[in-house]
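go over this record:
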Amino acid sequence: MLKQLHLKNWRSLRDVTIDFTPITVFIGANSSGKTNIIDALKFRRYSMRNGLRQANSRWNLSSEVLTQGTFEKSVELSLLYIASDGQEFPNKLKVEFKKFAVDYIPPLDYVNNDMDNKPLRESFQNFFSKRIQILEEGFRPEIYQSRNLDQPLDLIEGQAGNMLAILDYMQDKNVAPDIYEKFSEEFRYVLSHVDSVDIKSDEREFQLLITERQLKARTISAGTARVAAMLTALHMLDIPPEKPSEEAFIDSGLVIIEKPMNEDDIDPGLVIIEEPMNEDDIDPGLVIIEEPDAALNPGVLENLVNVMRRFTEGDKPRQIILTTHNPTFLNYFKPEEVRVVERDEEGITQVYPVPHDILEGLETIDTLGDVWLTRALGGIGG
């Protein structure tokens, strides 16, 4: 579980510390900085999977990320991760810039406060590289998807471009027994007019098929497709990982290649493969969804939140981070789950929980969404 995030000089987030709960909902006006927070987590995941230099090249930290107007020449992301056994793992990434130039790749300085605790370190690495699913703002999966695309099955693409490939894989009972049935059950719970959801596949493409009130739907709305994507992101973390090959171990850094002391005496190809993490030790994971309520009828929002909340309970509680502009959607969350994102007069983002005076006032006001509309709880734009 991600317990805390500290960002320094990350776009509008000059110096911000954010505490997370099992469900965390960011609210604020347009351009307040909500997406900047999600983008920082996306950067950290990408850097864990592809390396810091590739991540720096893709994000262009010195010119596109470093807070404008700052005299400092570094960007910092500090994380506090809580493993399933309760152990804390602090992790700090600092990128320093020696000079400013468009074509200059700065040196990358990786700092970790607990690198000697190998099981805990591996748990953190597994969490950030494989157990975080992110659906970006405006995601809208297509109901037809080509099989010829490079479609990873362990991470949902930010715009849900590989959703149908994941669902097709999830339907294979040899891979994920009962998971697709649970996905279908919750799909019907959120959208009560749906009778069934299925994936048709051939050698060329995947197709999303929806049956509504005993009739095959000729068209599928954006809201229906988005519900499918969100439930896919939540359920795909239940798919057990495949047993890795030796190549997969090498790619993940879990292989020790010993350098022989005497090449004439020792096989130079000697490889010691460590045991993969026990399936029981794998972190339940984190799902991040930007504006999950977009394109959804207000009548289905409560059911969607009920499904999300069930994922945060039980023996292996999943963590969920959301952003929203919708006061009605906000009404279904607890005040302690909400973080207000607001820019000050200098354009610097502040992030804070619901103030105590507003919490006390909620005893006489029906909903937190009503408070938000009064502009007493951060900006709402307009």
Summary: The two ends are 35 Å apart (CA to CA). The CA atoms of residues 59 and 65 lie 7 Å apart. Confidence is low (pLDDT under 50) at residues 100-110, 244-276. The chain has twelve helices and 17 strands.
